[in-house]
Design goal:
- By secondary structure, this protein is an alpha+beta fold.
- It has four helices and eight strands.
- The protein folds into two domains: 53 residues, no CATH class; 77 residues, no CATH class.
- α1 runs parallel beside α4.
Amino acid sequence: MNVASLELCKELHEVSGWSDTPLVYGNFWRDGSISPVGVYSRDHLEDDSIPTIIHPVFDLGYLLSKLPQKITWRRETMGFCLTGATSDGSWICDYIVATWSYPLPDPVSNVWMHSGGEANKTEADTPEDAATKLAIQLFRQGLLTRDGESGASA
């Protein structure tokens, strides 16, 4: 299973408080040795070892279930978008104006995180990292809150 990076999972856990994932970054003590830090099932760590759970692991399915399908920004309803269609092969997770038609006339002006050169905050080498970066930005901007409710419209 592909998951977001250790650093991004840690950062998202700190801003979100999300901890109900089935996987965790951690290690464990068993048979006189400590395992390397890795991705483990919570069930595996709780069975027959003394676990050290560092923080939850976020996979793309979990993130998609938590991210809002749409946001309101500058009085526009914007829909969730995850694309790997960048020229350098990276992934971007963002919200786009829902009334777009293809081909896109001016994608930069109608994309939430692209405004003001902010797209690099949600661009990543993997879709999991891009979605994690987007979730972090939503929390930082108050569009998601720790209690799970959407914040005020931007």
